[in-house]
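Lab notebook, bench 4. We co-purified these components, and the gel suggests they stay together. Before we commit to crystallization screens, I want a quick structural picture of the whole thing.
Request: model the full complex, all chains together.
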Amino acid sequence: MKSLASKLRETLEYLELIAFPSNPLPIVLREEPPFYGDPQFLFAHCPTDFSQDEYRIHIGNLDSYIKAGAPYHAHVMLEVNDPDFGTRGVPFTEQETFLAMALHEVRHRVQYHNRIDLIDHTHTEQTGRCHLWGKMQKKHYQNMLGGAHEFDALFIGHYGAYELRRDRLKTEGDVRKLLFITPSEFLNREK
Ligand SMILES: [Zn+2]
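Here is the predicted assembly.
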């Protein structure tokens, strides 16, 4: 059976090849635990030298890290006519969890390398199915350093997990569009 780290790495490699085919970043697996307070899986960005950027997966205790995140890996962007609507917090499948985690980190790369406009709560609140999610997240991120980047990356992860469940990420083009989505493209998509 494949380890969680290798499944996560494969998802990340897949997204990197779609988003940055000529320049995928290294994915470094480390045995030692992350620095205190750092996540086990991250996009390590060097603002003064982008060529130093890499993804890091700290493989020790990765399973308990993913288990601890499970309550947050749940669908809350359900559509009103969705058969799951009403049962708030439908858990992600394992595939959705890895996709959400990897989308989040690759979106961070897109944010910094492509300087895109970030999606924030003023956008999510204009939509039917994302407004509640945006309201909940806004509280956590509005006063945090880098909070705007976190909100946007977390959004892409959750949104992508739901799009996967509803079979709307069929092609590499669909995935690429999601990774580079702008606020106006998002609002058009949700009309
Ligand atoms: Zn993040």
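The chain has one domain: 4-189. Worth comparing against the SEC data before the next meeting. Residues 104, 108, 150, 153 surround zinc ion (CB under 6 Å).
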